Predict the structure.
Amino acid sequence: MIRTLIVTAALMLAAPLAAQAANCSVDLEGNDAMKFNMSNIDVSRGCKEFTINLKHVGKMARNVMGHNVVVAATADMAAINTDGAKAGLASNYVKAGDARVIAHSNVVGGGESTSISIPVAKLTGAGPFEFFCSFPGHSAMMKGTVTVKP
């Protein structure tokens, strides 16, 4: 009887931890004030892939106040932004074939959503890593860290 109670209690305590470990996605919001709703994204090392779901909760069009999400090493962010600005909106402000970019989404406007999936193995190399919006001028305010957790 006591053993059954101990096992039951252990399973009940482990259930929330298992649910956290299984969370391999996050919902990120960008708005017309050029802000994301979070400044850090924790990625579980137990995930093979991690998905970022981006929703533009503002009202402005993608060509005026569009947002995307780009994941890269922090050291590469400025160069990615410079090359992305030259690539333009048609290329989602990301230079085609840019090997510095781990993952990027399409640019979305107000009320639109997009998603990216990232192989977690790509986030275990030379970091630290950031997520940011590469729409020209946005990354100064729209950025955050990506942290891989055990």
In short: Confidence is low (pLDDT under 50) at residues 3-21.
